[in-house]
Amino acid sequence: MNSLNNVIPNSVNKAAQPKIALIAEGGGQRGIFTAGVLDAWLEQDYDPFDLFIGTSAGSQNLTSFLARQKGYAKRLIRGLSRNKNFFQLGRGLIGKHIMDLDWYFDKTTEVNRSLDFKTAKNNLGDRELLITATNSRDRKPYFLAPTGESKQWRELLKASSALPFLYKQGVKLTPWMNTLAANEAELALEQVEPAVADFYLDGGLAAPLPVREAYNRGARKIVVIRTVDINFQVQSAWVNKLRAFVCASGYCPKTIDYLLQHEQAYQEELEFIANPPEDVEIIQIFATEKLHSKLLGSSDNDLRFDHKLGLQAGRAYLAEQNPQIWDHSHNQALQYCYN
Hints:
Elements: H1 3-7, E1 19-24, H2 31-43, E2 51-54, H3 57-66, H4 72-79, H5 101-107, H6 117-124, E3 128-135, E4 141-144, H7 150-160, E5 171-172, H8 175-181, E6 199-202, H9 211-216, E7 219-225, H10 237-249, H11 252-274, E8 281-286, H12 300-320, E9 333-337
GO molecular function, one term: hydrolase activity
Active site: 56, 202
Domain PNPLA: 22-215
């Protein structure tokens, strides 16, 4: 058995003390709501978290939050994700990426769009950031830790956002990246067997809402920023959109298994949130009304509207929370819809 497979996908509870975790859900352009919440927190220098877990667009939002780049995610979603170079359905007919993540992340190396990975690493300190991705070979969720090196961090973000069919087979991460991403300090590198450089896909396929992962890693207060409606219970926003794309193209049999896996994983996480262990507090942050934006193809007005909803939700959360006081006896799962 390949020991690498045992190291990365599995949860390891290393916490001696209860942690406060922040989870950012994916959702494509709907992540601009999350960007608004985090921008509101940056306004007040609010960051009491010990553990961060981001899925897809959520991983990008958490990175810019740690980099203290207020407004960065909003600018990229409104700009790059709406650019015709990023998304063209017709490109799939000639064997190219429909969603060109290579172009997108190359743009983030430009001076005026640069992600400040150095600041993000410094602010992260000895805390933990995990970026979710799905291994296309074993279809398991992998929780990958950036080393701080910009190229590696950027590739993890790309892998976490690589939707099947839209970004062909996924992102090829080297065994070197995989080993470092395992983030298991107690395992020497020589104990990890060499592995094939697998392709990785969107983290939302296998870990759409990694609340259990946060709990298993010692988090006992878990804040989850959602990009769906408060009454949502079945599948995340991009599933129907992606299903329509792939089935119309004739690739449905190759991709439908991922969608079924996603729906099952999502339902399991919702059940955990609805019936949490007694020693955990789960807080969900939703928009006060239905988000206007979509996975892709949102108008600029819709994106502006949802970012404002995020700002409102983030500020309202701060008004309700005292970061200096945490009642450990409060153990029920909460879901807040902040005004």
